[in-house]
Design a protein that fits this description.
By secondary structure, the protein is of the alpha+beta class. The protein is built from four helices and nine strands; from the N terminus they run βββααββββββαα. Helix 1 crosses helix 4. It is globular, with a radius of gyration of 15 Å.
């Protein structure tokens, strides 16, 4: 079963499709963006732009990291989720203009996959993957009811990414 999330970023209705992954620890959504993979990837791979596309509204500032992420890059974010905290991430998957994923000490991952549709548009799938997290981190994710909340945050992030990618 596929659910849909709708959010109006401008006067147009924008939708990200929520995907059923078959794994309760992986929450994914996808969207079609009228921009090239390189345009979209340049936004995702720049940690200074993450606040612009953050659908969770938890990133308050980029505090460290390169202008462009590559495999092994480390970058830090100032976050707020009830309390203010700082988190350091490491890029663990990277294929320019196609795939990028990062994780922090909790080991869960945020992953973007871009597919060039060949007509000036790109299909983007974002996933939050908690399956890499150790047992203690799994307990925390379950206690915080992170999976349902994250499912909506992923969809909102894609709507924001579409808006930023298509409108500069």
């Amino acid at each position: 079963m596929t659910l849909r999330y709708s959010k109006s970023m401008t006067t147009d209705k924008v939708r990200a499709e929520i995907l059923e992954t078959g794994n309760p620890k992986i929450k994914s959504a996808r969207i079609l963006i009228q921009a090239s993979p390189s345009t979209i990837f340049s936004i995702i791979s720049n940690p200074k732009r993450h606040k612009d596309i953050d659908g969770s509204a938890t990133i308050t500032a980029n505090i460290s990291g390169p202008e462009t992420l590559v495999l092994g890059s480390k970058f830090g974010m100032k976050m707020r989720l009830g309390i203010t905290y700082w988190i350091s991430n490491t890029v663990v998957e990277y294929k320019k203009n196609e795939v990028i994923a990062w994780r922090h000490f909790g080991q869960w991952r945020w992953r973007y996959e871009l597919v060039d549709m060949g007509n000036g548009s790109t299909q983007v799938t974002e996933s939050f993957d908690g399956s890499f997290a150790p047992a203690i981190a799994q307990s925390w994710l379950n206690f915080r009811k992170a999976y349902p909340w994250t499912q909506m945050a992923v969809a909102k992030s894609l709507v924001r990414l579409k808006h930023v990618s298509e409108n500069g």
